[in-house]
Design brief:
Blueprint (H helix, E strand, L loop, with lengths): L1 E8 L3 H13 L5 E5 L29 E2 L5 E2 L1 H22 L10 E3 L2 E6 L1 H15 L8 E3 L2 H7 L13 E6 L3 E3 L1 H14 L3 E4 L1 E9 L2 E8 L7 E12 L5 H8 L8 E12 L2 H4 L5 E3 L13 E7 L2 E11 L12 H5 L2 H13 L1 H12 L2 H11 L9 E4 L3 E8 L3 E5 L2 E5 L5 E6 L7 H12 L4 H11 L6 H8 L13
Parallel strand pairs: 1-2, 1-13, 2-10, 6-15, 13-22
Antiparallel strand pairs: 3-4, 5-9, 6-8, 7-8, 11-12, 12-13, 14-17, 14-18, 14-19, 15-16, 16-17, 19-20, 21-22
Helix pairs in contact: 1-5, 1-12
């Protein structure tokens, strides 16, 4: 029998971030991280399972909704930008202290752009730009309808394009591309070096209450054909298992998890490593989603830097699989249906018929039809330069709603027991980019007795948290946000 202070379930960016915080705040606490696969960062945190966008609301149209009166609401964009800044400050602190390698080992400066076509979209982008640049956080963003200027920013957007087609773009030079897989490995190496027990090939099969804490039953998969299980008692459990978190939270029996369901969406990207093509595009360019498309399917043409090599990535193309993890079970979706979440799930199905139509359209689209979407961004694209890769699974949150019976959320949501002994993370993007503020909120919520004495050290790690009011404001993660595509 093993006993630990904290058990982290899942080897992704969220567990790694929480582990890093706790090792800095409470270095004597015993922490164990359990990952079902043979290495960490293999699901949503893997760089090819997400778009690697450092989400700072510099390019994503879904963070700036148009109101009925025609004005553009930038409140969500401001919040996301502030949250990414908190994550950045935390990463910089870790690097400055020598806890992880320098930021350029997992992050590269990659301008963020928004690109639209058609007079109506051009007009909206102009109004969006005017609203954003009135705020200090976005004051440096540029806007242009001039093809020559847009070509300076991203030549492939305008090369061989019809000169009579109305186009517009915004440009934010401070954007970033983030290899969340490399960052996760850095963080896990840090906590392991500080005494945490990191156990790959250990799958949590059961979670049950035990003496004020929790007992985890683990399957040790290192024994290959032989089945070996053992138990671990933990005072606190964090379920950072991506799409697998819902099952474990349901299994725990906490009432706070009742009513939650999951809607899995798979996806594909087109990728090219052709040096001649890659050299002509150095930006992350987000467009406008099709009518009925989920926010995570916003098309974008991105520079990606993985293991020091640059690529271009386009997508995502939505698909459907009942798996909650890329390496999950075909029974994940049906096994997640419970009496408590059946009504919300049915309500979501009724109210999101356009989403179902969109998914059917994506599933039945030919490869030529899909390639046309890339041509809309890059008229010179050649099929021979591009290959199809499968992205990670995303499980969108379905939950109870007092008026609609059930709603579909596109953001990241912390679900925690009232006594603070167990918490988990549900949902998709912008999760990875806002991992630090999400975990700060979790620390305050689940460790109320310790949180007051942690405020000083947290502010030293993340200067923007200084002051109780500022800290509480910045720590709130955005719920119901857009996201990336397939992002951590």
């Amino acid at each position: 029998m093993t006993s630990v202070d904290v058990a982290l379930v899942g080897g992704g960016i969220m567990s790694a971030t929480l582990g890093a915080f706790l090792k800095l705040l409470e270095p004597t606490w015993q922490i164990a991280l359990y990952e079902r696969l043979d290495a960490v960062a293999q699901e949503s945190s893997n760089p090819w399972n997400n778009a690697g966008t450092g989400h700072a609301a510099l390019c994503e149209l879904n963070y700036t909704a148009e109101k009925p009166d025609g004005t553009v609401d930038i409140a969500k964009a401001i919040t996301i930008n502030e949250q990414f800044e908190l994550s950045y400050q935390f990463w910089q602190h870790l690097a400055d202290q020598g806890h992880i390698p320098s930021l350029d080992t997992f992050m590269s400066n990659t301008p963020h752009m928004t690109f639209v076509r058609g007079e109506k979209n051009v007009d909206f982008l102009r109004r969006r730009w005017e609203a954003l640049t009135a705020h200090p956080r976005f004051a440096s963003m540029e806007y242009s309808t001039d093809p020559a200027k847009i070509a300076e920013w991203a030549p492939l957007l305008v090369k061989d394009r019809d000169p009579d087609e109305p186009i517009a773009a915004t440009f934010a030079a401070e954007g970033t591309d983030v290899d969340f897989g490399a960052l996760t490995r850095h963080l896990v190496a840090f906590i392991e070096g500080q005494g945490a027990d990191v156990e790959p090939l250990h799958e949590v099969k059961n979670i049950s209450r035990r003496d004020g804490g929790w007992r985890l039953t683990l399957k040790d998969k290192t024994w290959n054909a032989h089945t070996r299980t053992h138990t671990v008692d933990a005072k606190f459990v964090f379920v950072g298992a991506g799409g697998g978190a819902l099952h474990l939270l349901q299994q725990s029996g906490i009432p706070e998890a009742v009513g939650y369901g999951g809607f899995p969406i798979s996806g594909e990207f087109l990728r090219t490593s052709n040096p001649a093509v890659v050299a002509e595009h150095q930006a992350k360019v987000y467009g406008k989603a099709d009518v009925g498309a989920p926010p995570m399917s916003v098309p974008h043409l991105d520079t990606r830097v993985v293991d020091g090599t640059s690529y271009l990535l386009f997508g995502p193309y939505a698909g459907f699989s009942p798996k909650f993890l890329k390496k999950g079970s075909w029974l994940d979706l049906p096994e997640s249906i419970r009496p408590g979440n059946l009504v919300p799930m049915l309500a979501v199905a009724k109210d999101n018929f356009d989403l179902l139509q969109y998914l059917v359209g994506q599933l039945t689209a030919s490869s030529d039809k899909k390639f046309e979407q890339l041509l809309a961004f890059m008229p010179t694209a050649k099929p021979s330069d591009w290959e199809t890769i499968t992205a990670g699974q995303r499980v969108q949150v379905m939950k109870k709603h007092p008026e609609k019976h059930g709603v579909l959320e596109f953001g990241t949501e912390v679900v925690a027991a009232a006594d603070g002994t167990i918490a988990g993370l549900l949902g998709a993007s912008p999760g990875a980019s806002t991992a630090a503020p999400i975990m700060v909120k979790l620390l305050r919520q689940c460790f109320p007795a310790d949180a007051p004495r942690w405020e000083g050290p947290l502010a030293a790690m993340i200067p923007a948290l200084a002051g109780d009011a500022a800290g509480a404001e910045h720590a709130e993660p955005a719920v119901g946000e857009e996201p990336v595509s397939a992002e951590a």
